[in-house]
Amino acid sequence: MAREKRKWHPLFLKYMEEIIKDHHYEGLPIEKKRDGTYGWIVFSDSEIGRKRVEWCARKADELGIEKKPGFYAEVMREIHPTKWKVCQTCGEIMSIYYHYPNMNFLNAINREFHSDFTDCDYIYDIWDELVESGVDEEEVARFFIRKGKLDLDAKTASKSDIIETLEKLCRKGNKKLLGPGAMSNFPDRFDGFHTYNRCCRANQDTGRSKENLKSYSKDRRAYEYWSDGNIHAANKFMCSDYFDGTSADHIGPISLGFVHDPRYLQPMPSGDNSSKRDRLSVEDIEKIIEVEKRTGVYPMSWYSKLIWEYIRKNYRQHPELVATKYRDALKQNMSNFMFVLFTILDRCGEKGKAFLKKAFLEPKYDCFNYSYCFNERGEIVSKTPRRFTGRMNDEEKRYHRIAIDAVHDYQEKDNRNNNYYLVPSEQHLLLKICDKISAGTTPTRECKYSVERLMEFIQRRVIEGMGENY
Ligand SMILES: [Zn+2]
Fold it and tell me: What domain range is 12 assigned to?
């Protein structure tokens, strides 16, 4: 630990000192070591980690912050004396709020204003620099309001009105245009934030070129959600000429469980993609039903099938529920599914990983074995076997790695995703499945069947929950 600390940036050491002695953190446990340094980092399941959690819960009560998922982050942001955090690696200071453009928004800004900002530029600086470079401030305001679909008037709203409205929406998980300068990490870090900032994100693969980054993110999300559909064909169709000058958009958002399949893709004006993401409309549902009728390709991934069936049966009587209750039920079920996967990985270790791979990922490998030709509706008009190359094997490995990593990431995310909910009987069943997988004596297909049954129970309960409130 001491050796590691010596590498830390002097400005970060100074920052730690100031935070530790700041009165807002009074009573928050931290170990003072014999050499006079402090144990800034602890494991969350250590004694100090647990005491930090208790402290934070009391603080939440004091501040009147509701203790729902993500409240640690809210408390630690609320009490932070300066709202700026020093990066442990490079010493750069960044805002702890969602004040930095994420990739899609950044690209949209740079395209619109022919600028060259990066995702580490402070959003206020971006605004000011645009105005200084001669762009009419009202035009900047209009652009931000349009991108964020904010309910503000460009003629009257101030710069801070606009940015802070957008910041809050992003922080609460309703939009993804902006990201934080430092991710939350409580109780592991004393101040509640990762030691490195956005500028030095640990997982940042610095060897990646901009171009790689683009293709890298295209298919990634479908792997992350364990989406059904012909995922390889969808990836290929997304990269086809058909989407030149636009971006490919899922008619049914994959974050709600819809499939990643070329037949369910549509062009969307470039840069607009991020805004749709996990919304659902009656129009979408009717398009989806039309595509299914025409192509016979099922629109929903297996784990949310029953909820989809329910929505399809009921959306005409209750169109007003599509964007709210129905969409929320799918979102909720995604969280539940991710929690089920996480529990299996967490409790069964390598055996859990091997099981999930064999039961749910390998069956999808087959689509990687072909090359496809499409018509403009994404229908596959021909497919030819690909000659087996190392490349294909890499694709499968990458698919596997992204899917497994995503399950861990989903649990660690700040707030927006972590609202899974299993009733005791479902939890009990899940633990029984984990025991079976760990024991290693039950065939994979039997364990798989149990997981499928569990997801059915969960969905039925989610559906019942929707019915009650009519
Ligand atoms: Zn840094």
Answer: 2-95
